[in-house]
Amino acid sequence: MTTHPSNPALDTVDGLIKLGLRNRWYALCRSSDVRKGELTRIDRAGEELLLWRDASGTVHVQEDRCPHRGARLSLGVHLGDRIACGYHGLQMDAAGTVVSVPGSPGCALEGKRTLRTFPAAEHAGAVFAWFGDPEDAPPAPLVFPDELVDGEWEHFLAYVEWDAPWIYSLDNLMDPMHGAFLHRKSHTMSRGRREAVFQIRDTGTGFVFEKTDQVGVNFDWSEWIDTAMPWIRLEIPYPATAGPGGPFRIACTATPINERQHAAFFWRCRRVTGWERDVWRFLYKARLEERHWAVLEQDRTMIEAMPPDAWERENLYQHDLALVRLRRLIRNEAARQLRERAERSAHGSAPGGASASGDASAQRPAPASAGREGSG
After folding, report:
1. How far apart are CA 325 and CA 14, in angstroms?
2. Residue spans with biased composition (Low complexity) (predicted)?
3. Residue from 276, 255, 22 nearest 126 by CA
4. At CA 356, angle to CA 163 and CA 367, rounded to 5?
5. CA-CA distance, 117 to 97, in Å (whole number)?
6. Contact by Cβ (8 Å): 189, 174
7. Which of 298, 212, 300 is nearest to 254 (CA)?
């Protein structure tokens, strides 16, 4: 018996790798994509989701499946502080409780909490949700990189949906060397050497992958951060023509849509305050944003053209050490989660069961604040 009947792939190690680990926060979409008075349907991390805002504007994330007959709630009606299924009128509140069954008032469904509801939050122009295992697992604190919470940093969000596995984006971001080749004509990555030796430096929340013989010239380091949410941070020096402020930081995360598609979020950040903030915002919108989108387009073209079995025919070398470590971390964590799920099932604390394979020494990274260990 599977514990995810709607998506049995989530009961395998490879499935969790392709569709995303559980007990993690994931970014879902831009805040502007969830409009007041409307019902929004999206697929993320192997789950079919309904997003909506209540009368106060608070966003809610629930399974897009009516507990009565399994109809799509996204085809229903928004009623302010609740939603109604378009099939038989069942009404549910933001906690997932059935509050009314118009066709059979007083029936046993009323008052039951039967609709899966995901803890949700909004920050920096995006919507986030917690994917627990088991479903009622309490969410870990939602921790952001400093660049998205420190008032001395200004940021803009770039959001994309690409036709490629989400892991391909993680690989791309943890591969600083591609900047010297794929992005050689970029205004920020036109300088520096095309050869390098890398090292891995551990941090309290992950690790930094950095060049040992070049700092502050090109895309010279990137940092993996796991605070119960996947983050990658990197830094690219800015030329003087980009205006006042320090180096250009990017805080990134990616979320699987399905096994072949993903959503990616790139917050372009710069440490600026006062009048420098105003100058940066103007220059970004007037001159720099278009160039940054051109770089993302280069990444999209390359990643989307890669075959689904790219990993199976690789020949990696020293520049790929970060990819090897990150993939091992994710695989070990997927195996650990399945082992725990099987143990819960054996003790009767959760339905179903699953067998696990992988490194028996795998441990889940402990949630912690994302500091500045990766500063270049």
Report:
1. 17
2. 347-362
3. 255
4. 70
5. 9
6. no
7. 300
What's the number of CA atoms in the CB half-sphere (13 Å) around residue 297? 7
- Fold assignment, 24-131: Rieske Iron-sulfur Protein (2.102.10)
The predicted-structure confidence for 98-144, as pLDDT tens digits, reads as follows: 999 999 999 999 999 999 999 999 999 999 999 999 999 999 999 99
Distance, in Å, from the CA atom of 112 to the CA atom of 119, rounded to the nearest integer, reads 18
Instruction: Spell out the domain ranges in the chain.
Output: 24-131, 146-321
- Please choose, from the candidates 139, 137, 133, the residue with its C-alpha nearest in 3D space to the C-alpha of residue 228: 139
Q: Among 312, 292, 272, 341, which residue's Cα sits nearest to residue 12?
A: 341
Asked if 23 contacts 48 with a C-beta cutoff of 8 angstroms, the reply is no
> To 10 degrees, the CA torsion angle through 323, 325, 328, 332?
-140
User: Residue 152 half-sphere exposure, CB side, CA atoms within 13 Å?
Assistant: 4
DSSP three-state, residue 46: coil
* HEC profile of 111-174: CCECCCEECEEEECCEEEEEECCCCCCCCCCCCCCHHHCCCCEEEEEEEEEECCCHHHHHHHHC
Amino acid identity at 352: G
> How many CA atoms lie less than 13 Å away from 76 in the CB half-sphere?
25
Residues 146-321, CATH architecture: Alpha-Beta Complex (3.90)
Residues 44-87: tens digit of each pLDDT: 999 999 999 999 999 999 999 999 999 999 999 999 999 999 99
Give how far Cα 276 sits from Cα of 136, 158, 375, Å: 45, 21, 21
